[in-house]
Amino acid sequence: MALINWKNCSVPTAFTLVGLSDIPNFQVLLFVMFFCIYVITLMGNISIIFVYRCSSNLQTPMYFFLANFSFLDMCYISTTVPNMLSNFLSEHKTISFYGCVFQLYFLLLLGSAECYILTAMAYDRYNAICHPLLYTVIMNKVSCTNYIVGSWFIGIVNSFIHTALTFTLPFCGSTTVNYFFCDIPPLLNLAYTDTWINELATFVIGGFVTMGSFVLTMITYANIISTMLKIHSNSGQKKAFSTCVSHFIVVAIFYGSGIFIYLKPKSNYMDQDRLVAIMYTVIAPLLNPFIYTLRNSDIKIAIRKIVYAKMTTQKY
Q1: Exposure of 173 by Cβ count < 10 A (0-12 exposed, 13-18 middle, 19+ buried)?
Q2: Burial of 55 (C-beta count, 10 Å sphere; 0-12/13-18/19+)
Q3: Residues of the domain holding 260
Q4: Residue 16 main-chain phi, psi, to 5 deg
């Protein structure tokens, strides 16, 4: 792309989003499908928060983190899907300039915060399995709250840096974003200037945030596995494994797709990246409530107690 005098560029009023498909007959089908996914995701995550708030047996650090993670998932999917649903039924698939700014900002903020809440959840399981006698001392209420606040702080700082760097670029030509939401890689492709600083910042800062939390999580799991192998009881190993497997599945889905998108050069950006982006922006928030509840006996018991209490109340 040829360079121009970007100082004469005016700020675009809106961006056009290519979306997931340009075939008109698919738009209604895609709307119905993603609308159902959105509603199920919200209901699933709200249910986890509700069960946590209403169940005395779930008032532990593990479920405190899970409830916060569910809240993040609800916000995360809400940054992209509502606008996408609107565009499915619109002839002109657009998003305002400032709408794009806020969408990118909150997407990066929530995504970064999720990374470190996942790390905090892994650290919680590490202490529960490796230091059971000190667990309540290490994972006290103040510590857990600090982990949540720290995750949000990292997300705010990381998101501000990347959003500021992205939207100080000149967008003098095409404003058609080859994506279904505003994200760093497709926006860099529209800039009429060298974007090496942005690419470096994405790789270094984004890599530090994403890979830093990923490495910490993997180190934590390495210690967990090492401790599990020392447990001689099969039932003990099974119990320890069952408390970690759901979280590990979520980590694999979230980090796998996120690292694929952000930690590669702009020149390697492909149309297929849109399908990968669906994994961490839409599918992961959808699957998380099912992953955590279907294998979790504590949540199942809590749900049964709530339902039984509700039925008893109505009976009398």
Answers
A1: middle
A2: middle
A3: 23-299
A4: -100, 130
Does residue 16 belong to any structural domain of this protein? no
Q: What is the pTM of this model?
A: 0.86
- Per the structure, how many domains does the chain have? 1
Q: Would you write out the chain's pLDDT as a tens digit for each of its 316 residues?
A: 344 455 556 678 889 888 777 777 788 898 999 999 999 999 999 989 998 998 888 889 989 999 999 999 999 999 999 999 998 888 788 899 999 999 999 999 999 999 899 999 989 988 988 888 999 999 999 999 999 999 999 999 999 999 999 998 888 777 888 888 898 888 888 887 778 888 888 778 877 888 888 888 889 888 888 887 777 666 656 666 666 777 777 887 777 777 666 666 555 555 567 777 888 888 888 888 888 776 677 787 787 777 777 666 665 5
Distance CA(129)–CA(8), nearest Å, equals: 61
Q: What is the CATH number of the domain that holds 228?
A: 1.20.1070.10
